[in-house]
Amino acid sequence: MAESRRVALVTGAGKGIGFAIAERLQREGYALGFATHEDDDKSRKACEKLTDGPVEWVWGDLADPEVPPRLVRQVAEKFGRFDVLINNAGLSTAKPALELTAEDIDRTFAVDVRAAFLASQEAARAMGDTGGVIVNITSVHEHVPRPGFSIYAAAKAALGMLTRGLAIELAPKIRVVAVAPGAIATERNEEAEELASEVPLGRPGEPHEVAELVSWVVSESARYVTGTSILIDGGMAQHVVERPAG
Question: Which DSSP category does 199 fall into?
């Protein structure tokens, strides 16, 4: 029997923004696909914190092209339906441009762009005529560059354009929206507090604030929103960051 709850898959769900999104969607009644890079103890403990509803923990290296569609299929098969995909997982490749390697480029685009595309393909098939929502977590650097982030910014810009292209092709049944965070205080983004002076609102954002925006994007309240990128950056895009990343 099909699960009556709406079903969402969040990639990169083990910490930071991904965990905050997973936690928020579960509180709102979603059955949750909780995707992590590995089946390690840290990821298991993170998943076990989500006790407000059904969870299917799935894992795999998104740089492997077979993994993104498999994760979607596992969650769809577990719950009998598929409604929301959150492509959150990504690599923050930070190096001076002249130090970047072909491997850096290939892996960054494999995880940040190709994996999101392959997961979106499979999600669209799983959603079928019922439709649903795909949210791509990009970055303020989808819109503005930063020294040390040449490849990261390029990958996020590509994901932003992928959002627009898929929104056209998958309409009207499926909405596709990018959410572009700025400096968010997470375990991975250790310099967020140091960047406060670069943010017009004077502070880094919090993961739960990004989760609240994503919650709205996937809701019926946003049913006329598709093919766009929504910044949540405290105004950071209005002030080009000169400090090198990394």
Answer: S
When pLDDT is cut at 50, 70 and 90, the band that residue 244 belongs to is confident
SS (HEC) of 40-88? CHHHHHHHHCCCCCCEEEEECCCCCCCHHHHHHHHHHHHHCCCCEEEEC
Q: Which of 152, 163, 184, 217 is catalytic?
A: 152
Q: What pLDDT does 246 receive? A: 73
Query: Which CATH number among 1.10.10.10, 3.40.50.720, 3.40.50.920, 3.30.930.10 corresponds to the domain 7-238?
Result: 3.40.50.720
Give the pair of three-digit tokens for residue 168. Answer: 């056209």
Q: Name the DSSP letter for residue 129.
A: G
DSSP class of residue 110 equals: I
| pTM for this prediction | 0.95
Residue 152 known to be catalytic: yes
The DSSP bridge pattern shows strands 31-36 and 7-10 to be parallel
pLDDT tens digits for 75-113? Answer: 999 999 999 999 999 999 999 999 999 999 999 999 999
Size (the chain), residues: 246
Encode burial over 200-230: b for 16+ CB neighbours within 10 A, e otherwise: eeeebbebebbbebbbebbeeebeebbbebb
Nearest residue to 122 via CA among 74, 90, 89, 160 = 74
For the chain, domain boundaries: 7-238
First to last CA, the chain: 49
